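Standup notes, structure subgroup. Blocker cleared on the carboxymethyl coenzyme *A input:
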Amino acid sequence: MPKDTLTITDNRTGKTYEVPIENGCIRTHALRQIKASDEDFGLMGYDPAFLNTANCRSAITYIDGDKGILEYRGYPIEQLAEKSSFLEVAYLLLNGELPTPKELEQFIHLVTHHTYVHENIKTFMDGFRYDAHPMSMLASTVAALSGFYPDAKNTKDEQSRRIQITRLIAKLPTIAAFSFRHSMGLPYIYPDNDLSYVANFLAMIRRIGTATYRVHPTLERALDLLFILHADHEQNCSTTSVRTVGSSEVDPYSAVSAGIGALYGPLHGGANEAVLRMLREIGHVSKIPDFIKAVKSGEGEKKLMGFGHRVYKSYDPRAKVIKRVADEVFEITGKNPLLDIALELERIALQDEYFVKRKLYPNVDFYSGLIYEAMGFPVEMFPVLFAIPRTVGWCAQWEEMVKDPEQKIARPRQIYTGSKRREYVPMDKRAAK
Ligand code: CMC
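Run returned:
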C-alpha cells in the first residue's frame, strides 16, 4: 500500500525513521529526532537562499514556473490584466474574492480618502539631499509612518490592521510622487481625490503650474495594468523580508519598509533600472554579440539583466503582457529607441545555447523599464513604480502571516564555522598578522 510518508535510514546509526509527507513537503522539524548520539542536537536542513524550503502556507498567489502560470487567488494574470483594474485586483488579493460593484466603490472611496500625508512628512522628506535616490526616500518615509500612526502596533487587532493597510496603499503613490518631486527640485503636489489611483499618481508627478493637467487614458490604463502585473508574486525576496520582519509583531510600516529595501536591490525590483542602464551601455544593435559574449564568459560579472528567474523556467507571463502594452504606449509616446536593442537582445538570447540550457527567459523587468522611460520617468523611479503596486501584495501576505496560527517569529538556524572556544588575549600579547 502506498503511504504518504518518507522513510529515512540514518547510516550513522542504522536507525530508520518515518516522516509524514503533506502537500509534497516534509516538516524539516521532523528531522530533529534523527540523532547520531544522545548529545546530538538532531538533524537540520541546510538550504541557503531557501532554494527548496517552503516558509509558509499561502492562499494568495499561485505560480507554476515551468508552465509560465501566474494566478492571483485562482484568477489567471492574463484575464485580470485584460478585464480588471488595479484597485479591483488589490481588493481581490486582500480579501480573497473579487468585489461586487458596491464593495469596489467603497474600497475605492476608502483608498482615495487616505491619500494625504501628515505635513511633517514633507518636512521629513525635505531633509534628504537633492540627489537622494527616490527608493531610499520611499523606504525611509514609509518606515517613518510608524511614528505617525502609533496605533499600528496593534497588529492583533483586525480593524487596526485594515486601517494601516488602507493607509499604506493610499499613501504610497503620494510618498513616491513626493520623492520624485524632491529629486527634481519641484514643489510637492497634493493628491487630487477626483482622479483615479493611477491618474492621481501621474498628476502628482507631472503637474506644473496648472490644476488642469489630464493624463492620457492609454497611459493611465497602461500604468494601471503594469500595477496589476506587479501586485504580488508570492514568496520573493521582498515579500519574505516583509513576512520575516513582520513576524516579530512590529507594525506593518516597518515591515513594508523592509520590503522596499529588499526590492531596491538590482537582483530584484532594481532590475528594471539595471536593464535600462544595460541597454544604454550596449548602445547599438551591432554591439549585442560582444555583450552576449561578455555575459557568457562571466567577464566583469556581467549578467543579462531582465533575464532569468528563480521560479520561472519559461517565459514570464507578465513579460508577455508587458510586451503588448509597450506597443500601445509607444503609439502615444513614440517608440523608445532602446526597444530595437531589447528585441534583438531577446531574439539572440533565446537562440543561444547558454541561455536555452539554463532556461533563462525575459522576466517582468525586461520591457517594463522601456515603458516607464517612454512615459517620462527617470530610471531611478523604476523600482519605486514597482514598490507602489507590490505594497498590496506585501500587505496581503503580511496579514495572512499575522493570522496564521502556525507562524512564529522567523528565526533560522545556522551551521557555525568560526573558531573553537578560546581564551581572551591581552592587547600586549597579540602578535602582528
Ligand atoms: N544573465 C546571465 N546568466 C544568468 C542570468 C542572467 N540574467 N541569470 C542566471 N544566470 C545563470 C547563472 O550564472 C547560473 O549559471 P551557472 O549554472 O553556469 O552558474 C544559472 O544561470 C542559474 O542562475 P542562478 O543565479 O542560480 O539563478 P537564481 O535563481 O539564483 O537567480 C535571478 C535568479 C533572477 C537573481 C537571476 O536570474 C538574475 O540575476 N537575473 C538578472 C536580474 C533580474 O533580471 N532580476 C529580476 C528578477 S524578476 C523580478 C523580481 O521578481 O524581482
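Discussed briefly. Residues 122 and 294 are 45 Å apart (CA to CA).
Next: hand off to the docking folks.
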